[in-house]
Task: inverse folding
């Protein structure tokens, strides 16, 4: 099993996963990021083997985000051998009790861990944007610590499209290999802030933050949704295309950028679209313009309403009788009290 799966290559097979829309197998590899698919598959085999040998499973998944179908399927899969139990304890967020706000102590701890100038700059920028542009006006941009666009031309197109619409933005670039030319900083700093490291919970919890343009990592996506912030997905690899597919095509709380895709698999047809992405800068420019214009209109309002509904459901998860509270009680009964 290990050898056969580790040498499998995407071939356009339609994949059905509980909780996700149907996807071709090559949709799981949206960009050529220099990681061979067999390396990823081999790692997934090792993780599967580890789970198979475990006595049970604790996850930070939540019914609010992942849905009953997905979590029930995971629980059934774990229980197929030895009647093992699974407990879904998400979301694990530092909320104020009974609310969706991040606790003040969590925000203070996050800011204290930041380089003082960047933390202070970030808060000042958000406060000024709130006063100048209003609530939910800022687009927060982050590709995380492990990914960065293949071409600076893509970044240039992104920032140009934002500034043409006078949309303020906060751009963090924590990937070690990420650089932004001085000429780019000078051209766009009148409307945005560039910091290498940003206090993410502080940003997402600020009333000025309106949208999150993200690679689609699970932690950042859940943090954004916990604050009712809709997303714009720019996925690179691993779990990101799956997360973005659920966010955009199942939960309807965001947009997916497909013209950022690259490589042999990334430029193949997507199951939900009539045509394959081209990956050209002109196509990306057109797509970004359409997404930002739609974001500012009625469709954007609908996606925000969906995100806020999910936020409220997540906030109730740890109240007495909530989904996570019940799961934790079951865990205590099974492993501790029983």
Result:
């Amino acid at each position: 099993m290990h050898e056969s799966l580790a040498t499998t290559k995407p071939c356009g097979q339609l994949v059905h996963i509980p909780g996700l829309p149907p996807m071709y197998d090559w949709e799981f590899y949206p960009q050529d990021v220099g990681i061979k698919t067999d390396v990823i598959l081999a790692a997934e085999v090792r993780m599967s083997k580890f789970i198979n040998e475990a006595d049970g499973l604790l996850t930070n998944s939540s019914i609010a985000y992942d849905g009953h179908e997905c979590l029930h399927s995971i629980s059934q899969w774990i229980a197929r051998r030895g009647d093992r139990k699974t407990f879904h304890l998400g979301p694990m967020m530092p909320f104020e009790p009974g609310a969706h706000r991040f606790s003040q102590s969590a925000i203070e701890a996050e800011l204290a861990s930041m380089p003082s100038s960047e933390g202070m700059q970030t808060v000042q920028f958000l406060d000024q944007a709130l006063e100048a542009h209003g609530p939910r006006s800022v687009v927060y941009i982050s590709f995380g610590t492990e990914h960065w666009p293949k071409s600076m031309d893509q970044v240039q197109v992104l920032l140009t499209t934002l500034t043409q619409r006078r949309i303020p933005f906060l751009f963090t670039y924590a990937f070690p290999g990420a650089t932004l030319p001085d000429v780019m900083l000078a051209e766009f700093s009148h409307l945005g802030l560039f910091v290498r490291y940003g206090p993410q919970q502080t940003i997402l919890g600020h009333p000025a933050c309106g949208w999150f343009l993200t690679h689609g990592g699970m932690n950042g996506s859940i943090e954004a949704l916990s604050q009712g912030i809709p997303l714009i997905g720019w996925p690179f690899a691993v779990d990101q295309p799956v997360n973005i597919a659920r966010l955009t095509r199942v939960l309807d709380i965001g947009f997916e950028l497909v013209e950022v895709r690259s490589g042999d698999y990334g430029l193949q047809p997507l199951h939900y679209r009539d045509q394959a992405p081209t990956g050209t800068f002109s196509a990306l420019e057109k797509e970004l313009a359409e997404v930002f214009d739609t974001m500012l209109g009625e469709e954007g309002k609908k996606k925000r309403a969906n995100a806020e509904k999910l936020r409220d459901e997540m906030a109730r998860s740890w109240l007495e009788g909530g989904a996570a509270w019940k799961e934790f009680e079951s865990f205590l009964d099974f492993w501790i009290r029983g």
